[in-house]
Specification:
By secondary structure, this protein is α/β, with parallel strands linked by helices. Helices cover about 30% and strands about 25% of the residues. It contains 12 helices and 24 strands. The strands form 5 sheets. A 7-stranded parallel β-sheet has the order 3-2-4-1-5-6-7, sandwiched between helices. A hairpin with a 5-residue loop joins strand 14 (about 335) and strand 15 (about 345). Helix 1 packs parallel to helix 2 and helix 1 crosses helix 7. It is elongated and about 70 Å long. The two termini are about 25 Å apart. This is Cobyrinate a,c-diamide synthase. It comes from Phyllobacterium zundukense.
Length: about 425
Amino acid sequence: MKGMIVAAPSSGSGKTTVTLGLLRALRNLGVEIAPAKAGPDYIDPAYHAVASGSPCVNLDPWAMRPDLISALASRHTEGNKMLVVEGMMGLFDGASDGRGSAADLATHLSLPVILVVDCARQSHSIAALVSGFRDFRRDVMIAGLILNRVGSVRHETMLRSALESVGVPVLGCLPRDQGLQLPERHLGLVQAGEHLDLEAFITHAGHIIGDRIDLEQIQKTANRYGPAGSMANVSRIPPLGQRIAVARDNAFAFSYWHLLDGWRRRGAEISYFSPLADEAPAGDSDAIYLPGGYPELHAGRLAQSENFASGMKSAAADKIAIYGECGGYMVLGRSIEDATGKVHPMLGLLPVETSFAKRKMHLGYRRLEPLAAAPFQTELTGHEFHYASIVREGVAERLFRVRDALDEDLGEAGLRIGSVSGSYMHIIDLAR
């Protein structure tokens, strides 16, 4: 398994743009790539898939068991593909308990780290920063640097001079470029499917990386072989049914590749439908999954999707297993209040009302202990990230008892009525 992790000292350093440009530049050279994203991110993987032409898998060193990470990485790189992993936050940043950083993932997979450093507001101080990252953990190998947002030839000369004594090779320097900015919204980047000029953006990033980064040295750096895992005998979250209809469009885009792949590997058939296009789930489905996304931005359109609503209500009446998480949970509820304060009726299958006008950030890893009503009767790990809040709940069975990464009790979460259940938690893996 050959590859690397693209990381940075902190968020906002430009590692996503660098990763996208690197994926496209390597693809332009004919390199077979297996893109991956460290941590629980849903949005970046869609960009990676466009840049590389291959599906992107999440590798989460906090929420996933080590054997699952090894197995996913091994399967993803079959055919001698190069694993290119984008880190999350800063290299050593993890959950609130300190675990689960990109550095932890690099150690587990024996991958070298390419560090992207934002140089816009520093010159000689870069030597102290890089020295600190190089020496902080001896089990993490920083194999090269990409200097980002370099202001001029003189600025580059100062940076390279300061780094000569540090001993970490500079693989290239990228200029300040307004054409390398990606639009953002409240949960991160605007979704790849909504970026109208995405192909032009990635093409530009690929050209810049191809011109200014030593891609030959990048490939040599990646030729460090880590332990190979096997998909055999790795237990996975059980499928909701044998024929699972999955909602997929700009309102329901947050589904993990490894979760759906695991269901397929357990014999489940997956079909897709678009609530925004007013599509109902397939009539022969014995389970329906509404993943997270941005229903708060499309609440008016969802409220008018009569075929979708009719199909979902018929499935509930037929006692088909229906599970929604985060945005999907909101749509299963009675209503969503949008940012302007307008209330839109939803499916009404669960007694919950949510509001995006009354915003409060909920963020963090979660340990989920199943209660009797939970659709998965095993302890799970998950993640929660949303701004919409519950404004009113009715009586229903609860799904999980929830604890955070510091093992603090967050109480019970989720609701179930008949065959319909959901919560704000994004499930990731079986607990260790």
